[in-house]
Design goal:
The chain is an all-alpha fold. It has one domain (about 5-80). It has helices at about 5-35, 50-80. The chain is elongated. The model has no long low-confidence stretch (mean pLDDT about 90).
Length: about 80
């Protein structure tokens, strides 16, 4: 059992971090596109264009979702292996 504990803990961490990133990207998209909150470009300090913001949020949401899915699948495999 001691060998499975780190694998489960890492999988839980990946699931948590991926979910937070995906939810953060979604919340930023809702705040900007629905409520009109301005998002500044980090390099120029000017407001970000809708196109660049949409691409960035899509990228972050996709990466967060993939990390969360990898954590969920790893956690499922660790549980299945433990139940044998």
């Amino acid at each position: 059992m001691s060998n499975l504990y780190p694998a489960r803990r890492i999988a839980q961490g990946a699931l948590l971090v991926g979910s937070i990133v995906a939810i953060g990207a979604f919340a930023t998209a809702v705040a900007h596109f629905i409520f009109g909150v301005e998002v500044a470009d980090r390099n120029t300090g000017q407001p970000a264009t809708a196109w660049s913001l949409a691409i960035g949020l899509l990228f972050m949401g996709t990466i967060g979702t993939l990390v969360a899915a990898a954590g969920a699948l790893t956690l499922r495999a660790a549980r299945r292996h433990h139940n044998r």
